[in-house]
Amino acid sequence: MTEETHRFKAVIAGKSYTIVGQATDEHMRAVTELLNDQYKQLKELSPKISKEDAAILMAFNAISDQLKMAAANDQSAPKEDNAETGD
Question: Could you list the mean pLDDT of each consecutive 10-residue stretch along the chain, which spans 87 residues?
Answer without folding.
Answer: 84 96 96 97 97 96 96 81 52
